[in-house]
Amino acid sequence: MRPEMGGSPVFKESLGTRDPAEAARLFVAANARLQVMMDEAEKRILAARSLDEISAERAGDIVSRYLATYRPDNLFHPFYSLARTFYAEETCVRLHGFVAERSTPMPMEDTDNLSFKRGRLLVGDQWLDFVRDRPRSVWIKACDEILVPLFRFATPPVKRIPENEFALMDAWNVRVEEDSRRFHDAVNNPPRARSRSRLDSGLRFGELLDRWAEARTPRPQTIHDTKVAIADLVAFYGDIAVSSFTKDMLLDYRDAARGLPLGMPRADRELPFPARVEKYAGTKLNRVGATTVKKRIGAVQALLGFASQEGWLEHNVGRGVTVEGAGRPKIRRRSFRSEELTTLFGSELFLHPTRLLDRRTKVSDLTLYWLFLFGVTSGARIEEIGQAHLADVVRRDGVLHIDIDDYVTDTEDGAGELEKSVKNDGSRRVVPIHDRLLDIGFERYVDALRRADQRQLFPDLTSNMFSKLTQEASRRAGRYIDRVVADDPRLVFHSFRHTFKDQGREAEIQERILDQLCGHAPTSVGGKYGSGVGLPSLKRNLDRIVFAAIDWDAITAAAANVKWVDLVQKLVARAKITSPSD
Predict the structure, then answer these.
(1) Dihedral over alpha carbons 64, 65, 69, 74 (to 10 degrees)
(2) Are 289 and 175 in contact (CB under 8 A)?
């Protein structure tokens, strides 16, 4: 208070009168002014103190990083918080009557030595009782052996004020409770055979990525994204050991990634990460979205979590790092409205199908034609449709359907080149062919492909680097919707999935059957029992959805003029697809 009140030990103010009555009156006013000055000084002190205070999260991070500096040959390995706690208890032996004789861990102790400690007083026991039973103002005085190294270790420096002392000791005592419990478990239940430490101080991020990919077998695109994130991380910090990586480093990497622009020329994308960050620092360009940054940081967190889980890291420093704004989709997809379905399926693509191969495009109008029709009548994802093989189009129980799965028969020539995938286990399902597609000529299209010795339902779809077949088809579908229906970012091919669900509910199809058709997990408890309805029932329910906004008669009449054999042969020749018999 003294510095805020001018620095003098006594605050004086003359009343300017010798008249006792006048002095009494002036004193009241002077005393009120003094009280206001003291209140304001106290506010300034509290404000300055609050700026100096650290959060519980920061205190926990300081304690974790400090304990991570201990080596396995330490006397208290692996219960490192008990080391400094031992010295705090030594202080309490003198000041508070603690028992001096207590058992400590020993490096590489065998089972017999651990069993010998059973029932004895262990390091940490008296300290935890002391903290629970005594006021904070008492036990904090015995904490210098812990606080001094913590304040010295903290980077950036932390001001030593009572609030920060308590924050650090609260975080420390949490670790003491954890280590004490594990120490007691080791004494009471010693391992039959001692295993070596799994900590790997020499592990680098590149090797960790390889181990993670082998153990977790993620999707190719996930592996690619993770490799990019790790390559940029290594470019930013060098090829450091994973054990030396800190939470602060991950936060700095996150903040650097936030500064990258939304789009870059190819030449700039090929620059090392630090060069990209430096080049675009301070520019006014639109920055990458929070979801993109989260994908990058999440890749690093996945590796750190895996390393911690496998015991190669003492602590997972990636836990708790967040990206503000991530996970909030800016654009929610919506269903097609009735008039939009009328417009889309009344366009040239569907009313003049004899011209489906008049234009040369990477993904043909013929393929786009069937993808749209399948999308609206099945609610299937575009990749689920696009990856289908002719072997997946089968008839069972009198119902023609498509098997949506990730299985490729060994008998298919070139099967190893035709990978398939599903989003999750629930996505594996059978999808009956709607009567409207049969009327249009789907079976004739399939027969033409089989006569041409094709394996895929859509021969002109080719895999990208992640073994996905429909990347370009999805782009073409989106551009066609923008041009013909509406330039609405919420309206994409996936909107057919929402539309199918809406149309099914309007037809009063049971929700569990709609879930089965779409490959969704059941939303009710009862829906999780049983294996679903059979194909004939699925087919009957599917055909009840009529999609009344679409002029099916016009589409069917136009398709009657199509010579599917000629069209497929032209498609195969154009795509230069060699049949197995060649």
Answers:
(1) -10
(2) no
Cα gap 160→52, rounded to integer Å: 9
- pLDDT tens over the chain, length 582 residues: 666 666 677 777 788 888 888 888 888 888 888 888 888 877 766 555 546 899 999 999 999 999 999 888 888 888 999 999 999 999 999 888 999 888 877 654 555 566 667 778 899 999 999 999 999 999 999 999 999 999 999 988 999 999 999 999 999 999 999 999 999 988 888 766 556 788 998 999 999 999 999 999 888 889 999 999 999 999 999 999 999 999 999 999 999 999 999 889 989 999 999 999 999 998 888 999 898 999 999 999 999 999 999 999 988 999 999 998 876 655 688 999 999 999 999 999 999 999 999 888 999 999 999 999 999 999 999 999 999 999 999 999 999 999 987 655 544 444 444 555 555 555 678 899 999 999 999 999 999 999 999 999 999 988 887 778 888 999 999 999 999 999 898 999 999 999 999 999 999 999 999 988 988 655 443 343 335 688 999 999 999 999 999 999 999 999 999 999 999 999 998 876 433 333
Query: DSSP alpha helices (H): ranges in 189-241?
Result: 205-216, 220-237
**Non-local CB neighbours of 157 within 8 Å, separated by 6+ positions:** 151
Q: Which two tokens stand for residue 523?
A: 């939303």
pTM: 0.54
Residue tagged 């895929």 (tokens): 456
